Model the fold of this input.
Amino acid sequence: MERLEGKVAMVVGAGSIGPGWGNGKATAVTFARHGAQVFCVDRNRDAALETVRLIEGEGGSATAFTADVSRGAEVAVMVQACLATYRRIDVLDNNVGIAETGSVVEVEETEWDRVFAVNLKSAYLAMKHVVPVMIAQGGGSIVNISSVASISHVGISYVSYGASKAAMNQMTRTSAVEFAPHHVRVNAILPGLMKTPMVEHSAGLAASYAKGDVEEMWRKRDAQVPMGHMGDAFDVANAALFLASDESRYVTGITLVVDGGLTCRS
Ligand code: NAD
Done:
């Protein structure tokens, strides 16, 4: 069933930081499997190209584009490049994100600014340039990838990450109201503890969980979740597919938690 037939989807952060399936890579491939033409943006050209190769290998259509989306000028060029290639943008998936550990006492000012630039400013910039395109087209769907760390303390300290994602939630809700009359829907997904390359490679996460022992970190994360295991990148991708498709045409402004019950446990 091609749930995105005829749609053009821009996935920002469509590569993966390491071998395996990240949320952005899985989302780009899932969108293509359901009929979308996918514009795959990443600051790492090889990562974007790998996702495009996967899509083309399955008979889908995709284009790679390199940009640092924390920079306004690069985002403006990115949006024009997508329009030059596909003429429209029906779906925008804002997936870039980095996690740096530390409390407000520990985190350095430069790190705080960097996390906010990558996690929040990137999504603001992409929406700033894409929303007018969607309005002119008569509508569209924006999916912002947030985190359960925006609404709860998940056991380790990364205040800049959680604060940037909380701001993303409010940007989502505010924009949902403001652009609803134009049929531009804006929703967020809050993934829980997912087993992705980003977690394995983020500075400080394995150190915070298990003194640097990645296997022990996976065990601890599994044990935190009521379902007994972490989610994977396709759990996020499938939620994004629903929000991107017309099946969710009456859904806007939600923060969709995808966490195996984690945030229900006090
Ligand atoms: P990933 O790090 O594997 O992939 C993200 C891609 O974004 C990378 O290829 C990276 O090169 C790219 N990128 C980073 N900064 C960029 C920039 N400034 N400009 C352009 N590209 C940039 O991560 P992923 O698995 O795809 O998931 C990322 C998203 O999921 C993040 O927003 C993250 O906060 C969120 N998330 C993940 C988890 C989890 O447990 N894995 C949980 C909650 C939320």
Remarks:
- The longest helix spans residues 109-137.
